[in-house]
Amino acid sequence: MELLKIILAILLPPLGVFLQVGLGKHFWLNIVLTILGYLPGIVHAVWVIAKNK
């Protein structure tokens, strides 16, 4: 399941974060980071998924 979340985090970073933590502060932060730049959104999403195993 974690591998699927990481793949989704690479394709759609906010979706990967949503599946891991729901509609919390990390989700909204990831939305902003993804809008500002796709790569920061991916890095944050993978970090959230790896941290919250």
- Helical residue percent? over 70%
Sheet with the most strands, sense and barrel status: none
Low-confidence parts lasting 5 or more residues at pLDDT below 50? none
Percentage beta strand: under 5%
Individual helix count = 4
Mean pLDDT: 93
Q: How many domains would you count in the coordinates?
A: 1
Which word captures the global form?
globular
Structural class by secondary-structure content: mainly alpha
Radius of gyration: 9 Å
Distance between the terminal alpha carbons, to the nearest Å? Answer: 10 Å
Count of β-strands? 0
Name the helix and strand elements from N-terminus to C-terminus, one letter apiece.
Answer: HHHH
Describe this entry's structure for a reader.
The protein has about 55 residues and is mainly alpha-helical. The chain has one domain. The chain is about 85% helix and about 0% strand. It is globular, with a radius of gyration of 9 Å. The N and C termini lie close together (about 10 Å). The mean pLDDT is about 95. Keywords: Membrane, Transmembrane, Transmembrane helix. It comes from Prosthecochloris marina. Belongs to the UPF0057 (PMP3) family. InterPro entries: PMP3.
